[in-house]
Design goal:
Blueprint lengths: L2 E5 L14 H11 L4 E5 L12 E4 L9 H14 L3 E2 L2 H7 L4 H7 L8 E3 L8 H6 L5 E5 L9 E3 L4 H11 L5 E5 L3 H4 L2 E7 L2 E9 L14 E4 L4 H14 L5 E9 L2 E8 L13 H16 L1 H7 L1
Parallel strand pairs: 1-2, 1-3, 3-4
Antiparallel strand pairs: 5-8, 6-7, 6-8, 9-10, 9-12, 10-11, 12-13
Helix pairs in contact: 9-10
Length: 302
């Protein structure tokens, strides 16, 4: 029994001094429990993928920079019949923020969103009226780490449109109203394992910024879940993350209603070090999955 612990090549690229090395610590914790994991890079052409019984996706953080290569890799793994956590088809679906429109159409509470498709002109001014706002957020449908993300006001709309007209030749963009609640109250992240709630954190941007990522000065701390918000987050997981080992539900409270920003099912930071026994919770969830879906592994480790 061999498990590939799937990561990316330049581990330090998305890490900063204030951000815990969750990837390395989790690998150390799981191998310390006796699990047969090997850290592998998803872009490494020398990897013999057919030698692994399970692909445990942790941090292919550069997938959005090589999206066609990533899709081809997912297809190869599916053709080989190697189980993947999270499931291959859900990872592909979750990689493109078109999924937010699907959720909106299904009646879920999601930040209002519009898509400017690849090749279309960047006409942003109408969205101020559509969303009844004086400020927009525009970002690629396939992205990470706030890449090519812009705040748009009537004062800079022409400048941003000029930038987008070039970028739209390569990829689609999503347009949303700027959510002031991120700056004032923060962004919730609910973490689930095997569909069950584990813990939650509150993320806040630094003063004068809207990005909650640690690399931009954002801060994170563990908080007790609001029961109503947790109920809403659970509904997203039950509908859209079936069969997933892990899920992170990111959202904000708008007029007392939990409103989804993103459902993270590919390579989210799970804030395992922010709560007591976070790494143990991941380990137990993985063992539960293996016992239910891979009984031969259970026999080998009994």
């Amino acid at each position: 029994m061999k498990i590939a612990y799937v990561c990316y090549e330049a581990q330090e690229k998305y890490l900063i001094d204030t951000l815990e090395d969750e990837e390395g610590l989790l690998l150390k914790y799981l191998t310390g429990k006796g699990l047969p994991l090997e850290r592998v890079v998803w872009t490494d052409a020398a990897v013999h993928w057919d030698s692994y019984d399970l692909l445990l996706i942790k941090s292919p953080w550069d997938y959005h920079e090589k999206i066609e290569q990533f899709y081809q890799w997912l297809q190869r793994m599916e053709a080989m019949g190697i189980p993947m956590l999270n499931p291959q088809e859900i990872i592909k679906w979750n990689s493109d923020k078109h999924y937010l429109k699907e959720m909106l159409n299904a009646g879920y509470s999601v930040i209002p969103s519009a898509i400017i498709e690849n090749g279309a002109p960047a006409r942003l001014t109408p969205f101020f009226q559509t969303f009844n706002t004086g400020q927009l957020i525009v970002k690629p449908c396939i992205s990470g780490g706030a890449r090519d993300t812009y705040t748009v006001t009537p004062g800079n709309v022409q400048e941003v449109e000029a930038l987008l007209n070039n970028l739209l030749q390569k990829e689609a963009f999503i347009v949303q109203p700027f959510v002031q609640e991120i700056e004032t109250t923060g962004e919730w992240s609910f973490i689930f394992f095997n569909g069950h709630f584990s813990h939650c954190v509150m993320k806040r941007p630094r003063s004068g910024d809207f990005r909650v990522q640690a690399m931009y000065g954002g801060t994170t701390h563990s908080v007790a879940p609001d029961p109503l918000f947790l109920q809403s987050a659970t509904a997203f997981v039950q509908r859209f993350a079936k069969g997933c080992l892990y899920a992170r539900v990111d959202g904000v409270a708008i007029n007392g209603v939990f409103t989804l920003m993103e459902l993270e099912l590919i390579e989210p930071f799970l804030f395992l070090g922010e709560v007591p026994n976070g790494y143990e919770a991941y380990y137990r969830a993985l063992m539960q999955y293996l016992a239910q879906h891979m009984p031969l592994f259970r026999l080998q480790t009994a």
